[in-house]
Amino acid sequence: MQQNIQTDVEIINRVLLGETQLYNVLVKRHQRFVFTLALKFARNREDAEEIAQDCFVKAYRALGTFKQTAKFTTWLYTITYTTAMTFLRKKRVETQSIDDETSVLQLENHISSFSADDLDKKSNHVYLNQAIEMLLPDDAAIITLFYKGEQSLEEIAQALNMESNTVKVKLHRARHRLKDKLQHLLQEEVNCLI
Predict the structure, then answer these.
(1) pTM higher than 0.85 for the full model?
(2) Is the pLDDT of residue 14 over 60?
(3) The domain spanning residue 102 has which CATH number?
């Protein structure tokens, strides 16, 4: 119970003092977001799982280099970003065209099992995730870090090794591209209903 209320920094200090099993608390705390970010780059579950696992191994090995002047999440997301970019370079994955139908994330297979109310509640989330999946990896990372990771512009800049003003401009442009993708998805949905 006490582990749940400890801060990331407190856990890191204890891990560095030899309580290595506590690293699992950090993994459980941050695995969902690391996986989500990795998935934005890899665009398939298997590669995203591999990237996420590599991130946590690298983070564990480099834990002693973590400077407690920044948030642990910013440091971890920097590792995630660089690990994903390295992984993609190794696989030599070319970014697919935005118009390519295979880049659109399919709706959940169980959508028919939702009640109408549940579907209404989840539809915005589903469309938003689909639109984010259609973005280029850099745009998806910035949108994900800002909105889902609740990172500040400065934290994103640090994580992506960019200037804050560059992140601000990229975020602004990514928002416009996201809006276009959402409008495209919603128009397709309307056309299917008519």
Answers:
(1) no
(2) yes
(3) 1.10.1740.10
